[in-house]
Write a structure and sequence with these properties.
The chain is of the alpha/beta class and 287 residues long. It has eight helices and eight strands. 34% of the residues lie in helices and 10% in strands. It has a four-stranded parallel beta sheet with strand order 2-1-3-4, with helices on both faces.
């Protein structure tokens, strides 16, 4: 049986081994995603599959300092509900659910944790979860959407991306299709891969446009069916398994590197600056 230092999957531990993992300072990683439509060619599992794959590989690369939890597979997809198969979790329920996981980890003694998200509309929600874990517990929590890990090395995306910017890598486009061609090629309906640029981008506005790697200065998140006929937003036809392997390995390596940095990072103590001691507590516990 491998030692606790070698085990990198949280749910493979026994409860006494959890105490060992806490003593080692291991950092739990919570993958989050969704079950939602990804056009005619990709399955509903794309978002949680990608987030879980990157998180798991990063933990495998740095097992002594990390533990990957089972993924939170459902997310906030209300605006996608015109497409069958999309399963929506109310945004408040999602926040509370992931927050409860984080609080449970903090209660047991884990004082650093990471949320790795795989669904665009969860991003602001995991931001809120991470903030609340910090102010409502004595733990630290960092977060990302996995594709943002491709921005660590500024020139990396130039080496694989061929699709138009903005819009070529938005949803079920070049990036996500490449990832599935690498991670789960048997799940891709190869004969149904077809590109579609979202109407949001085709309008040519300098204010409202979208891509996984950049947004316009103004936000406008409509119903998905208002800006895509197929559910695809991007140039899926430019995807390859080779690109998927490149981006998967880059994202996973960068996350593993961050785990190393975060593990050694000193968490500073908060300091109150009121001249007088506050006379009532904040809404959330802070001590």
């Amino acid at each position: 049986m491998p030692s606790v230092r070698e085990i990198y999957k949280f749910d493979e531990l026994t409860w006494p081994e959890v105490n060992e993992a806490i003593a080692l300072g291991k950092i739990p990683i919570i993958p989050t995603g969704s079950v939602e439509q990804h056009g005619h060619h990709l399955p509903l599992k794309v978002d949680h599959l990608c987030a879980n794959a990157v998180a798991t590989e990063a933990a495998r690369l740095n097992p002594e300092k990390s533990l990957v939890l089972p993924p939170v597979s459902y997310g906030y997809v209300h605006h996608v509900m015109d497409f069958p198969g999309s399963l929506n979790i109310h945004h408040e329920h999602f926040v509370q659910y992931v927050l409860d996981i984080g609080k449970s980890l903090a209660y047991h003694g884990f004082k650093k944790m990471i949320i790795v998200n795989g669904h665009g509309s969860n991003h602001n929600l995991v931001d809120m979860v991470a903030r609340r874990i910090i102010v409502e517990t004595d733990a630290s929590c960092s977060f990302c959407s996995w594709w943002n890990l491709l921005k660590v090395n500024p020139d990396f995306n130039k080496g694989w991306r061929d699709s138009v910017y903005p819009g070529g890598c938005s949803h079920a486009g070049e990036l996500e299709t490449s990832m599935l061609l690498h991670l789960a090629p048997e799940s891709v309906r190869h004969d149904k891969i077809k590109s579609e640029i979202a109407k949001t981008n085709k309008r040519g506005s300098k204010f409202v446009y979208g891509d996984l790697f950049g947004q316009g200065p103004m936000g406008l998140i409509e119903w998905t069916s208002q800006y895509s006929d197929s559910g695809v937003m991007g140039e899926a036809e430019k995807a390859t398994a080779e690109k998927g392997k490149m981006v998967f390995e880059e994202a996973s390596r960068n996350l593993a590197d961050f785990i190393e940095e975060y593990y050694h990072q000193k968490i500073e103590k908060r300091t109150r600056h009121q001249a007088q001691e506050p006379t009532f507590p904040l809404s959330y516990p802070t001590d």
